[in-house]
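thought: fold this chain, then report.
action: predict
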Amino acid sequence: MTTPAQTESTEAKAPNNVVLTDVAAQKVKALIEQEGRDDLRLRVAVQPGGCSGLRYQLFFDERSLDGDIVTDFDGVEVVVDRMSAPYLAGATIDFADRIDAQGFTIDNPNAGNSCACGDSFS
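observation:
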């Protein structure tokens, strides 16, 4: 359950939160519609692993965890747990469907290094 203080609109993006581009928001909406559920949100997390030390996880989740930061982007809720939030502050999630890049991408100003495959960072 979110409170109004935890939810922000697209127009009022705080620099400490994850930003979802319009293209990514439309793709997330389409994927949720394909699932046929209206209770799913995009959860973005940072977990130990990968060749650089930390890796991103993006998945649909219906759970609400204590300390979650929820931001609304044109009807798409993005959820970040309190442990991942410092690693993701100011990160932008986009979606690309080009010959040179396909899928969701994360531009994270907090990542000092990343691996060659782009799946992990430190």
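thought: worth noting. The first strand starts at residue 19 and ends at 20.
final: tokens above.
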